[in-house]
Target: ABM domain-containing protein
Amino acid sequence: MTKAYLQITLQIDETDRANAAGIYQKYRSSFLESVPGALSKELLVHIQGVQVLHGFESVEAAQAYLTSELFNKDVVEALKPYLKRQPDIRIYNVV
Model:
């Protein structure tokens, strides 16, 4: 059961959203298979940008992912060319 969500909102130009979606697809399986406590990962696309919603077993697992090599060296580096500003990152506890 999902106990926490990590929400990352990215400001990405409409012309670059397909590239961002490709990065999501590239790392989705790795996230689900290798990140401790990971339960789900969804890509939400809207007029103003892109949002990735990650489900975790705990808030601690979500926080740990933000310090992982997969997140910092793979995902963040791949997205850098498309980001218009720093991502908005929030962790929610399910009550």
The helical segments are 17-34, 59-66, 69-79. The chain has a mean pLDDT of 96.
